[in-house]
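Task: encode each sequence below as structure tokens.

Item 1
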Amino acid sequence: MRKDIELAEQVVEKFSKIITEIGKKIVGQKQVIKELIISLFSKGHCLIVGVPGLAKTMIVHTLADVLDLKFSRIQFTPDLMPSDITGTEIVEEDPISKKRYYRFIPGPIFANIVLADEINRTPPKTQSALLQSMQEYKVTVNGVTYEIEQPFFVLATQNPIEQEGTYPLPEAQLDRFFFQINIDYPSKEEEKEILYRTTGVLEQTVEKVVSKKEILDLQNFVRKVPISEHVIEYIIDIVRASRPTDPTSPEFIKKYVQWGCSPRAEQTIVIASKVNALLNGHTVVSIDDVNEVIYPALRHRIILNFQAIAEGIKSDFIISKLLEHFSK
């Protein structure tokens, strides 16, 4: 029991240290950073969506600098091949026996933190090279399976406005992402601070504050956080109501949604809520802890129909209506 209390305090302490260090380079975006940390401690992967110039890549780089983990970046382009991600086999010759053999050269996916930059710029065949590693922490090349060292955290960035020369992520791959984190424009005061920091001569450096072992210990611990049956039922009710074919779904779901969320969404919300509860200083998961993680957990899993797209309806609007529906 005492060890659990110490680990709970450690989650808050490490969260605070990560926020402090990232804040040396990144202005604002506190909710974005919190959602990234929730995903990390939950063993999840993130899709980060925002227009150019909002420091998506810089946030990931800074997070990697703060964590004592191996980092790699993959710049997704139309000519990128699956082997450029997973690795490839080369033929070598033994200088003595002259026998030839294959040697596997690991690709950039073999890291603890992988930045998949502008993931929608490469075709689905190459995008799918991430699927097995994200789900199983393994990579199979020519029939041989290689383990990826944990913790393993994929952070993919995507530009929502530039559609020419891009390939939308298949729904199966979207569902593999624990969170979709949307980055918005900073406030006027934050923009002023950004200008002061980025147009001067001083450059801030960050310290590594979390080790690999600490992350693995915390990832295992957060699942022990208790969650009551009525909170579980609340999560199930919301997710089931997102499906237009479910008898409990409201009229606006039937009108605007083509496909709702799967049980994987429920799993995501439960685990994320447990981490969020600890970060909020709670010993058990509350409805408020759940509501705070529902948007990033569901927004990429709700598939809108043509009518919603024609009327400019976004998935965040659907989620807000669902929360209103269940708060009555």
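Item 2
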Amino acid sequence: LCAAASLIAITQNAWSAGPAEPPSPAAFVSHDGAYFTTVGGHVVDPYFVNKSFIIALEANAPVQADFVRWLQWLLPRQRPDGGFDRYCIDSNKQWKNCMKADADDSMAATTIQMIATASKKGWIPAAQQADAARASRNARKLLSKLFDSKTSLYKVFADTEMYYLMDNAEVYDGLRASGASTAANALAAAIRRQFLDGSQWKPAIPEYKEVRFYPH
């Protein structure tokens, strides 16, 4: 009976405790408005931060002040070609571009979509609007270099012949959000034509011999 009572008590406590709450955004934020990829980490990947703010914008989450701080951090670090690297912070709290982006096409696409969505919602202050517009233009220029006229798809990097389904879908979202509906529709048709094989979608072109976490 004692064992049974203990088991009941343990079970009740487990149900009442529930799953652990995930860390809040504050657990990832740096001293100057960036967001680390992992709690306690030292690397900032702008792709994930852009993606998070896109979701927040679409959900009308009350994070405009955080978004403005992110733009202040992000925009000055855009590469001359319109892309963004990944950044590491050293012991003196100085940032260095320590790794290239996982993919230039999706990084450019999220920059375009985030800025376009924020502009429509009036989230970008007047003092940042010129810089934000310039960043979007530069990202679009990068996409134009990644566009392959043979496939009508966007390459991961300018010097590769690799195309990801997920990345091209993100480029579609970026084009559509920025009002480039003709280009977006053309890309949607190319995505179906190139990636859809019967009833199956190919995650990448050329196809991988073995399933991998990314891009599968």
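Check on item 2: Helices lie at 2-17, 46-58, 64-74, 104-120, 126-146, 165-177, 181-195. The first strand starts at residue 43 and ends at 44.
End of task.
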